[in-house]
Amino acid sequence: MLLLGIDVGGTHTDAVAIGPDGLEAQVKVATRHDNLLSSIRDSLGEIVRHTDPARIKQLNLSTTLSTNSIVEGNYEDVGVIVSAGPGLDPHSFMTCKDFHVIPGSLDHRGSETKRLDNLSLEEAIASCRNAGIKVYAAVTKFSPRNPAHEKSIELAIGDNSDFTTLGHQLTGRLNFPRRISTAFYNCAVWRVFNKFADAIADTLDEMGLGHIKVNILKADGGTMPLDLSRKVPVQSIFSGPAASVMGIIALCNITHDSIIYDIGGTTTDIAIFAGGSPLIEQEGIHIGSHPTLVRALKVHSIGIGGDSAISMLNEKVRVGPNRLGPSIAFGGETPTLTDALIWKESCDCGNIERSKTGFTAFAAKNGLEPDELADQAIGYAVDKIHDSTRSLVDEINQQPVYTIHELLENRKIIPRKIYIMGGPAQAMKMDVFRKFRLSTEVPENYDVANAIGAALTRTTTELELFADTERGLMFIPSLGHRENIPRNYKLEDAEKDAMNHLLAHLGEMHVASDGSNAQITSSSSFNMVNGASTVGRNIRVKCQIKPGVDRTYS
Amino acid sequence: MLKADNSLGIIFFPAFDWAISPTHPEREERLLYTQDQLREEGLFDIEGIREYKPEVACSEDIERVHFCFPEAEAVATRSHCISAGGAIKAAKLVMEGERERAFALVRPPGHHAMKTVQGSRGFCAINIEAIMCEYIRENYGPKRIAIVDTDCHHGDGTQDVYWHDPDTLFISLHQDGRTLYPGTGFPKESGGPKALGRTVNIPLPPGTSDDGFMMVMEKAVMPILEDFKPDLIINSAGQDNHFTDPITNMNFSAQGYAALNSMLKPDIAVLEGGYAIQGALPYVNLGISLAMAGVDYSHVREPGFNPKTLKESEEVMNYIATICEGVKEIYFNPPAESSEGVVSGNWSVRHRNIFYDTEGFTESQTESLLLCNNCRGLLKVETQREGGPMGFGLEIPAAACDSCRNQGYSLLEEAQVKSRYRYIQLINRKDKDYLRYGF
Ligand SMILES: [Zn+2]
Ligand SMILES: [Zn+2]
Ligand SMILES: [Zn+2]
């Protein structure tokens, strides 16, 4: 039985096949940005040539498709229909030209405080239709507490739409502006993503791999089945860094507070582990000009990589953040961090002779010994990495907490170990170690760790449950599930219901889970008081399938 | 994306695991809907607005301000220390220039906690604004500070802490004490003998709405602040003047609170009371946060807001105008003597009984200020909880003259020798010497 992982990266597309005893095949091909499918097909073809296709059970795919189409603004027009009520002016969150604000409002408990204005709604839809809009996002304030207004908007859009995203289906977490942008992006990339998904399915059929299960990587370090991803393509953005982090988890046995570096060509991604678990971004990731509610691992990117150019500023050596073509060793003109590492004989790649000659010439031009130049350049890069890491850890340790218990128990993150992967990993290892004085490890297969991470990542999902016993209602926004509950419904009931729905949802996605990776991440119950008597309880439970790998590989 | 005109730090600490009792107004749920509203609005995504974790105030932070009997640990719970620590964090952010302004959105509140503390009063055990102000003075040097208390209840605790301090201007706007707890806060309470006019009480009639409050701001508060020229303006931002508040009778709105804040421009705001936890707090807190950050708040409206039905009559407005003139007169031409205390020798002495409503006991207290021509004077307090042991507190102010300071130490020695007191506390701000004796 084989698990395939493909990570479509900025420069390379990496693919691996992992069997019960470890890596059975690995491939690296250049990524063709104008035709991602061909990069995937090529790498898959290589893998299939080296393995028995009948043994392949699953393909996990991380792709830059949604990210690129958003970043490049290469997506279709969306009709965004929102309803806000009191608060910030919703026009501040305008994501596109076909943005319509409809009077109407709900409060934080989901009570309607103002009816949705049907006339304005009809006008907004007519306007979108005239503009040729075929995909719609409907988002109302506090819809995770009551989806009624979003559903009314969906109903009114009716046949005008090929696809509609309702805000509450994306997540139960609150943040109206982010919900708007997330729903907007989801619609914007929906068609291009679905075409891609069709093409993947066709390709697999052609290659005789129609039987395998396909999952798409998400930014939170989990996967989602291809069928589900067609409805929430926005969840596939920024899954690249997640693949790397999952790769490290698969390759190393991480138990301490740790720092993970993925040193690439132009950037270094920094991730932090608390104990054995990667940290999740509290709200969601930023993309384009808007923050979103897309859950993601906390990964901080800085402009230092192997291809970062070395420059002089006021007689001081600097590295990055620009890339001015490849390293001299690979035919470039400006020396890079990689050239500095080659000079120090930490690294053996490309045309060593050419690199050293170019490097010496650059040093001489700036009145430096090449050794001095290399030391300063590497020192600069390591300092930058070190400083960014410190401020990231400080920021994490500063994150707000809301209960006395949390504040007192809140253990600070103190990194004990460093893991490095990516092209220059081995070459930088000793320099990083000297700076941090922390045990520093570079795993074997570090160069394809991202694809290994993709291959082994498990399917994850999260949900929020709200119950209001005064109203006798329980609601799980992301599943659109609503049911009546008795007045004596308790926190334990809510926790049990949340877990049951989580596992049932996995079942619907045809993912077998015994529940061992399911966990409650937060749960609270507040008395609601009217006058001097308790009228009910406001219960909130969050649960998730813990991001992680199905098995480790070492 | 939205950008704040003024960078703002918010210390949001809802203390989701602390309550006086399950149905008490000051309970776990109090800031729950505020949190929902702030999250749903995406407040912390606005460029310039950032959320911070509180610090935890330590015993020294508390005992720098209060005479605590038997000791700080006995009167303040963990939650009180975090609430005060939230205010301290707000002060640090502003004093160290990380943020232009800060809002400590914390609970429990503190403005009913007096100089001497033997227990809890009006949901308060320690005075979080005072602890913050004295933290500022201790760590960033002497400062002229104006505290404007916009809680519906008279800030009797803060008034008491600063009664003798000419460098702290305390202005309290509140519902008339004849109609509401704690029953104090009349204009004639204008400060101790060395700080006359530095306490400004503005009692307002029940039913005062946005227009009345704004009139007070324009006609009294702003002119007084302009004259006092504080280094820092603090807002004790109690929100129980709201028209839906269950324990008060005022008609103030979220728009009103935001407009008041926009005019006051406080450097730091600290949450005090406010018990309409569903219909008011989420909107008022949002309005204040936006106003402090200089972001448009004109769309913030609570359910049921109707300015016409809330508006006070012309008669009431005229009455408020008269009060404004009266309090301005007191600030600009303070009376020759304090309304409280009698002069005995060279001491000004007050005898008081203070009722601790949250816990239901009375403290009897004798407070004496040494009338000195060279400094604001040595302060001593003799206190006894009914049936309890005697306590003795002594404070040497930061700018004390040598004579007051020396007299302070001889009084301390005398108090120890006489052993009339079970507990003795010395606050020496001049030398930062803080001592406590007793068990
Ligand atoms: Zn007040
Ligand atoms: Zn109050
Ligand atoms: Zn003196």
Keywords:
heterodimer, A: 554 residues, alpha/beta, six-stranded mixed beta sheet, B: 439 residues, eight-stranded parallel beta sheet, 17 strands, binds zinc ion
Textual characterization of the structure:
The complex is a heterodimer of chains A (554) and B (439). Helices cover 34% and strands 26% of the residues of chain A. Chain A contains 16 helices and 27 strands. Chain A has a six-stranded mixed sheet, with helices on both faces. In chain A, strands 13, 14, 15, 18, 21 and 22 form a six-stranded mixed sheet that branches. Chain A has a five-stranded antiparallel sheet with strand order 25-24-23-27-26, with helices on one face. Helices cover 32% and strands 24% of the residues of chain B. The interface between A and B is large, with 43 and 47 residues. Bound molecules: zinc ion (ZN) (3 copies).
Level of helix content of chain A?
A: 25-40%
Named once each, the bound ligands are: zinc ion
What is the succession of H and E elements of chain B?
EHEHEHHEEHEHEEHEHEHHHEEEEEHEE
* Protein chain pair with the most extensive contact, residues per chain: A-B, 43 and 47 residues
Number of strands of chain A: 27
* Structural classification of chain B: alpha/beta
